[in-house]
Amino acid sequence: MSLIEKIQETKSFLEAKGLTAPEFGLILGSGLGELADEVENAIVIDYADIPNWGQSTVVGHAGKLVYGDLAGKKVLALQGRFHYYEGNPMEVVTFPVRVMKALGCHSIIVTNAAGGIGYGPGTLMMINDHINMIGTNPLIGENLDEFGPRFPDMSDAYSKDYRAKAKEIADSIGVKVEEGVYLGVSGPTYETPAEIRAYQTMGASAVGMSTVPEVIVAVHSGMKVLGISAITNYAAGFQSSLNHEEVVEVTTRIKEDFKGLVKAILAGL
Ligand code: HPA
After folding, report:
1. What is the mean pLDDT of the chain?
2. Is the full-model pTM beyond 0.85?
3. Which CATH number fits domain 3-268: 1.10.10.10, 3.40.50.720, 3.40.50.1580, 3.40.50.150?
């Protein structure tokens, strides 16, 4: 089956389950999936039941698609995403974004846990741009002309308009947000201190193992993107050692602020 046929099949399956006319796709990163539990009039579907869909394997990622109302908007939330380091082809990593677009989402809000370069644990950072150091690009291969052009413009990947509105909203509810460049790597190793020094020179403020593929595919199809990183640790070399437990612990600590912020943004966009 071609990619287009797979997208069509999955779209039809989800529409038959009642997932019609979503506005915003939400991609919830490590430890941030709880927000989907607040969706009202929810239709919840296990990833295992969805045709052509990948499977989540990471601790802290639930593996459910949640559709319904959040902050007055129709959302389609991914509780758990697919990572390249799990061995998923890029087509699988970005498939949910294709389906979100096909179902009618005009925007995605993408979130992640990330290491901070300059910023410390507990910081919420609005992504204003990214650097792709994953070593591949999800659009390599035949172009899906129905979705977008062969050579997509990435000049305003993280909508300037959304960033300005989100910053205003964050200020109005008293949640502090920083802003910076997210550098995406493949993982699963954390970076070496030398790599982090290189990334710092390149202009990165945060580093993580996700987000860049989904954003590229969203921008390709003309969706507007808002990205938020939860900084869970200082990147390698700026603290003595790194581990996934700390990532989960810090996201748990800041998730109330995070959830409040995303809901307020959704309400205001
Ligand atoms: N590096 C890469 N990915 C991450 C990090 C990090 O330091 N923290 C959370 N996700």
Report:
1. 94
2. yes
3. 3.40.50.1580
